[in-house]
Amino acid sequence: MAHVKIIGAAGYAGNELARLLISHPRIESLRLIDKQVEEATSVWKFRPSLRGITDQQVVPDDDDSAADAVFFATPDGVAMRLARKYLERGMRVIDFSGDTRLRDPETHRTWYGIEHQDPALQQEAVYGLPELHRDRIRESRVIANPGCYATSVTLALSPAIRNNMVDTGMLIADCKSGLSGAGNHPSPAMHFPERFGNFNAYKITGHKHVPEIEQELSLLHGGEVRLSFVPHLLPVGRGILSTLYAPLRESRSVEEIQSVYEEAYASHPFVRVLPQGEECNLKSVQGSNFCDLSVHVDDRLGRLIITSALDNLIKGAAGQAVQNMNLVLDFDETDGLMQAGLWL
Amino acid sequence: MAHVKIIGAAGYAGNELARLLISHPRIESLRLIDKQVEEATSVWKFRPSLRGITDQQVVPDDDDSAADAVFFATPDGVAMRLARKYLERGMRVIDFSGDTRLRDPETHRTWYGIEHQDPALQQEAVYGLPELHRDRIRESRVIANPGCYATSVTLALSPAIRNNMVDTGMLIADCKSGLSGAGNHPSPAMHFPERFGNFNAYKITGHKHVPEIEQELSLLHGGEVRLSFVPHLLPVGRGILSTLYAPLRESRSVEEIQSVYEEAYASHPFVRVLPQGEECNLKSVQGSNFCDLSVHVDDRLGRLIITSALDNLIKGAAGQAVQNMNLVLDFDETDGLMQAGLWL
Amino acid sequence: MAHVKIIGAAGYAGNELARLLISHPRIESLRLIDKQVEEATSVWKFRPSLRGITDQQVVPDDDDSAADAVFFATPDGVAMRLARKYLERGMRVIDFSGDTRLRDPETHRTWYGIEHQDPALQQEAVYGLPELHRDRIRESRVIANPGCYATSVTLALSPAIRNNMVDTGMLIADCKSGLSGAGNHPSPAMHFPERFGNFNAYKITGHKHVPEIEQELSLLHGGEVRLSFVPHLLPVGRGILSTLYAPLRESRSVEEIQSVYEEAYASHPFVRVLPQGEECNLKSVQGSNFCDLSVHVDDRLGRLIITSALDNLIKGAAGQAVQNMNLVLDFDETDGLMQAGLWL
Amino acid sequence: MAHVKIIGAAGYAGNELARLLISHPRIESLRLIDKQVEEATSVWKFRPSLRGITDQQVVPDDDDSAADAVFFATPDGVAMRLARKYLERGMRVIDFSGDTRLRDPETHRTWYGIEHQDPALQQEAVYGLPELHRDRIRESRVIANPGCYATSVTLALSPAIRNNMVDTGMLIADCKSGLSGAGNHPSPAMHFPERFGNFNAYKITGHKHVPEIEQELSLLHGGEVRLSFVPHLLPVGRGILSTLYAPLRESRSVEEIQSVYEEAYASHPFVRVLPQGEECNLKSVQGSNFCDLSVHVDDRLGRLIITSALDNLIKGAAGQAVQNMNLVLDFDETDGLMQAGLWL
Fold first, then answer.
1. How many CB atoms lie within 10 A of CB C222?
2. How far D124 CA sits from the closest chain C CA (Å)?
3. Which H or E run includes C266?
4. Any chain C CB within 8 A of the CB of D236?
5. What is the DSSP pairing of strand D171-177 with strand C291-298?
6. Does this complex have an ipTM over 0.90?
7. How many whole angstroms separate alpha carbon C284 and alpha carbon B31?
8. Exposed, middle or buried: residue B171 (CB in 10 Å: 0-12, 13-18, 19+)?
9. Is A159 helix (H, G, I), strand (E, B) or coil?
């Protein structure tokens, strides 16, 4: 049984994490903190579906209580200032922000436009994608919980890249995300009448999830990998569906690649490689920690096409953080995470 | 051919009106004014679908140009201060706000909570529901363009009340509106992730459209009529569907009441009384100036049940304003208003 | 620990029930049956979100295995033919259909238009709304799981009627339901392009949930209660929001009625009477077994207005069935049912 | 003034075309034909928004009346059998199907899987994308109205390919379409509860619009062009947004390419090349005949990225057919087509 804290519990990712931890069988105590609240406030004020389930409060400040792990469900720039003191008190840190995802300081500076306040933290962190780094995560003090898009893209491309099946010179990730990914701050761009029935691309050449994808794929490839990444806004609440395009280095049957993918994820409970002929979709993953993958080969043009679906708030954020916590605290990797999505 | 001005052209109702007037066959010049803009701005910045159709600008201030009519697509409290000077220059005024809808100053004070700045304007105005007051509108200098909900409810109940068919002591209007009715200012309540797939009632006992409905129905009844009115927020862009309940004073067949409704609207091109067995719906009216009505009798309980559908931005706002303009400027009532909705 | 069977496991309600029972802590074995399948088929073919969670099969026929309870998630007309043999084998029967909801054979004939094949079953059944009949359900062999609309309306009106606070001569239920309530058979009326952004009323004077609402409210009132009931189709997946109107017999403050409602449901874990000033909505209940109620008084007109929200597939169907099973099998009433909805 | 006929007027594309032609200023008579109707049926039975606007009937069979043009808004395989006799009577033919889009019989056989019944028709037809073939369309007797996806992709890539700016060996089209594109036949895949909030790819390596895109781009390139094309289903009614990826042959500034695009479409009223910094989206084009394009360069990787938005039923089908008709009948190209979309 563990004691954990969430910094940033009043945001969408933070209260999704609270929802998961409240019903987690190994959590003994949970402290919810958010400096946006002025006084202790029931967490169901932020997530009304929790009313009647819990009276857990969100408080403005942390106290001196000990904990086994602390989550930073905070914007970029917070963990780099605050994580150190939690580490020093012996807690494991799981950070949702870009502060810990990149190992190269220069890349961090370029994409995030801020100076890192704790470079050693950045160096120590392990990229928290359990399907790539499960063993290192178990041993780590600092886990960088991946970006939602980055999880979707990296899980989809990893087996092909690790097995050197594709030409890394022309990778393309066309990603479509529901709007919960944009957080809970109202804006003209998220105003219901402007988004209802709408769809568009955004940040076409400059989304901050690009460098972490490239970092991880480059590690797998053993050389620099770069990709075009275009995110789009879907008029739905939850879910990311990504379509990945990669030229095959040499001709391969779809069955062969299917086997590679199935084998790659055979020991990973939250990646479902769908059988040939079944296409992943958002409804199948909304509400769950699964990432679904469908494998296709365009034989005419010699290209691998992978589609990938996950829930941006769960496998793309809070669920993955719980999965990481389960690893660092030596729980079963699936503890508290085997809820089925609703589908309807 | 006419010259017209719109005050408040940058809001949803104002730019819907601009859209309609730009293709109106009898409009020679159109001046778009909104104090929210700092400099002349193409109207398609606010309504992107107009790009390539018009280069009409929205300007921050009016000039001294003459016009035949001026529209106030403004919040409550503006027309009462500014309309007078336009009247004095000989223009007809069509006001979208609550400043001119109520004849009784005390009722206005109670429901709007502000002191009227031009009581004579309030007295002079004619309630701009052409299906009730077509002849008086033609002669009037000041037209109070009705509220969206008020149009929906009043058109649905008028024939029954005018013909003394229902007991006015137990009228109920259960109304459901798309979210464009809430205007273009972002707010937590209109934030896409919170509204998507959601539905709820609001302002259950205090919506400002109540007194204008009661005023008009009381006039028709020749005695005080009051009703319960509960608005709800539909997770769609456009459209109001209202369900009206009224006890029948004496037993009537649905065919008899159907005839009364058909006759009541026989000369009114924008009210479609659907045949028995067809049920009105939002898609049929979205994008058009029609109000559809379906007539039902619950024989078991002796109640009249009417359903009513319209587009809140057209028959509920800008289209009705054009219809009123057509009347005051002696154009054909349907000029510029016979577009079919898209349905899909 | 219990053994249970679901007849009709391939429909929306049946596979929602399977989803709930698969993670229910007191279920030892589950048999899923549906004559629509030709051979054993994984339940996740019908509910793709269950893939990776369970390999439970849906089979075309039942076998002779014993069970503690059997659910009929079947259309009207099935339980009346098949339930008897399960009763005779000592199983408790929980029926989702209209076959067991009504005690009066004539009312059944009138509203359902079919002759009952097992009148004794109809007489023996207890109406499975635990908030009304918890003790009788515990003792019963046959439970009639209520209709989704009926649950929404009956929970909303019961406290007022039991306490004789309203005039039962003018009750109105204006109900709005998501489209999962229509089942999984494609039809023009449920074709996505025709429903997207649409809204309309249907079956305005003849929905089959009317007589069960009237039966239950009449029992509470100690005299005949009848109501107007108008269902509408919301363009969302899950959820029913009902707005109920009832004239107050005498003037009452909203605080007084609020207290009556809070007291009525104080011992019922799945009804949340929201505090004054908070309005129930669909998102708060989607995915959970809660029914939320908001209490309003229109002082101007002396009317009680209640709004009620629930998930039609959970508290309106499968969740309520589990709640009933928990009672008949002497489990804790909340076992397997305390999941929070997702909200986003 | 012209006389025209629509074969297939009861389908989505056919009644969209009827909607446009009913308000077209140059149409004198319109005959609506669909063998799916058993007797003359008001067109508003299929498109309820037309009620009160027109009483035009859809009839099961054509008569011997003369006409200037006939539209085949029919599935593949109809025009190849029926168009000839209309040509022989001197009418221009505008075909919505795949029967006339491809010049190469072998390619037609491969992708459509049927034998062509009128190869001369196929040879004579001109591909009806006015932005590519305006002059040839004017002279042609048979116009192949392009596929909706094909219009979106071809308009987006043409300027780059004609100007030899991109490497045609690695073109990718990732396209997202609203569900009206799937027609009006109910199916499990289009059942509202299964599609609401959902999103997925389909026909990943075999959509029939591929060969017409490749045919047209190859003509522009002067050599074979092939592309990967992945369509996706958006949970909205109307609109296609495509994202196109192409490696630049040599480094180019975005401003240079922007100029090429602006120039390419300067004389084409229905393509709006948006200024740098503005991103096309579905709402801006829903309800109109415009195709919007946004030009991007990923300098890091040397790739051109174009986004393209249009209304699949208008510029992607019926509007384009009217544009083609305007050309063949020597009307102004924009006649009847300058309606603004609603935006909200």
1. 10
2. 35
3. none
4. yes
5. unpaired
6. yes
7. 46
8. buried
9. helix
- Whether B148 is catalytic: yes
> Above pLDDT 90, what percent of chain D?
99
| Cross-strand partners of B27 | B2
Interface mutation target, options A45, A184, A192, A283, chain B, most CBs of B under 10 Å:
A192
Cβ atoms within 10 A of the Cβ of A269, count? 18
Q: In what order do the strands lie in the sheet with B2-7?
A: B41-42, B57-59, B27-33, B2-7, B69-72, B92-95, B142-144, B126-127
Tokens representing residue B102 in the block: 């109520």
Question: What H or E segment, with its residue span, contains residue C294?
Answer: strand C291-298
Q: Mean pLDDT across the stretch A36-46? A: 96
CA distance A197 to chain B (A): 8
CB-based contact D309:D328 (threshold 8 Å) = no
Q: Could you read off the pLDDT of C124-175 as tens digits, one per residue?
A: 999 999 999 999 999 999 999 999 999 999 999 999 999 999 999 889 999 9
**Residue pair D245/D303 in contact by the 8 Å Cβ criterion:** yes
Q: Which amino acid appears at position A10 of this protein?
A: A
From the number of C-beta atoms within 10 Å of its C-beta (0-12, 13-18, 19+), residue A134 rates as: middle
* Assigned token pair, A241: 């569906």
What is the distance in angstroms between the Cα of B52 and the nearest Cα belonging to chain D?
A: 7
- Tokens of residue D290, six digits: 């415009």
D201 forms bridges with which residues in the sheet? D232
User: Which tokens go with A105?
Assistant: 């300081």
Residue of A nearest to D308 (CA): A200
> Quick one: which of D314, D295, D315, D313 has its CA closest to D305?
D295
Verdict on whether the full-model pTM lies above 0.95 = yes
3-state class percentages of chain B: helix first, strand second, coil last, to nearest 5: 35, 20, 45
Kindly give the pairing relationship between strand A227-233 and strand A171-177: parallel
Chain B interface, mutation test: which of C213, C225, C298, most B Cβ atoms within 10 Å?
A: C298
pLDDT tens-digit series, residues A50-94: 999 999 999 999 999 999 999 999 999 999 999 999 999 999 999
Give alpha helix (H) positions in B182-329.
192-195, 210-221, 254-264, 319-328
Round to whole Å and give the CA distance between A159 and A195: 36
How far is C-alpha C250 from the geometric centre of its chain's CA atoms?
A: 32
Span A151-162, pLDDT tens digits: 999 999 999 999
Those residues whose C-beta lies under 8 Å from the C-beta of residue B106, and which sit 6 or more positions away, are none
When pLDDT is cut at 50, 70 and 90, the band that residue C182 belongs to is: confident
Total Cβ atoms within 10 A of residue C192: 28
The C-alpha angle with vertex B329 and arms to B328 and B331, in degrees rounded to 5, equals 110
In single-letter form, the type of residue at position C259 comes to: S
Q: Which long-range contacts (CB under 8 A, 24 or more apart) does C222-228 make?
A: C223/C168, C224/C168, C225/C161, C225/C168, C225/C171, C226/B300, C226/B301, C226/C168, C226/C171, C227/B301, C227/C153, C227/C171, C227/C172, C227/C173, C228/B245, C228/B298, C228/B301, C228/B303, C228/B305, C228/C171, C228/C172, C228/C173
Closest CA to C153 of C241, C254, C94, C256: C241
- As a whole number of angstroms, the distance between CA D137 and CA D129 comes to 8
Q: Which of A136, A128, A176, A179 is nearest to A319 (CA)?
A: A128
B177 forms beta bridges with B233, B240
Which of C12, C192, C197 lies closest to D190 in CB terms?
C192
CA atoms within 13 A on the CB side of A218: 14
Residue B337's nearest CA partner among C62, D71, D52 is D52
Sketch out chain D's domains with CATH numbers: 2-145+317-328 (3.40.50.720), 149-310 (3.30.360.10)
